[in-house]
Automatic annotation (TrEMBL):
This is DUF881 domain-containing protein. Keywords: Coiled coil. Belongs to the UPF0749 family. Signal peptide: none annotated. It comes from the Bacteria. Residues 49-76 form a coiled coil. The lineage of its organism: Bacteria, Bacillati, Actinomycetota, Actinomycetes, Kitasatosporales. It comes from Streptomyces cheonanensis. InterPro entries: DUF881.
Amino acid sequence: MRVNPIRPARLGTIAVFALAGLLFWVSFSVSGGSNIRTDDSLLQMSDLIRERDRDNARLEADAAELRAEVDALTKRESGADPAGSERLARAEDAAGLTELTGDALTVTLTDAPPDAVPLLPGIPDPLPNDLVIHQQDLQAVVNALWAGGAEGIQVMDQRLISTSAVRCVGNTLILQGQLYSPPYTVTAVGDREALRAALDEDPVIQNYRAYVDAYGLGWKVEENEDLTLAAYNGSTALHYAGPTE
């Protein structure tokens, strides 16, 4: 009996079918029998995110309601004691937990243009760090205003309290969980002449204003009458690191 040899073309066909079978088996094994070409997983993730957002919104509403109940109970308890009520009001004012209205000074700091050139003769070309607002610049303004007798200070749209920290990453301000980009505004209620004098005398601000003259960093001081600073409405609980177990 003569056995016909297997032709190369037939071998190629067999190899193709074998490879196709292998691919189908791998696809089934990876997908677990489900369709891996659909967007079901992305839709499920999107649904999960929306669900978490709704949960967070409900929790925020519950927290606001509880804070209101605590405030009402505190005021009711202190109402029985006029002296205690007065002490509570003074403490809330000092802590920045109530609105503050009065004459004010607003300082605005702005980055220089990215293509800035020296504005004074004999000044070297600026480096990138010479053209942006730094953390020490904002801190210097805040510290000077406190030293000048500010009754309350607001950075951007947030009232500062004793635990507030002004921090920058690059040229982005991080304040009490919120992110801000320049221009930055710092507003203080108090004696405007004393506040302005404190700004003029601060050595860090004097150094900053040298860069204002040299490269065009922004610096503006405005006076306001009967300006109202918002009350601080965040958490007053202290958060701190602890040792790992």
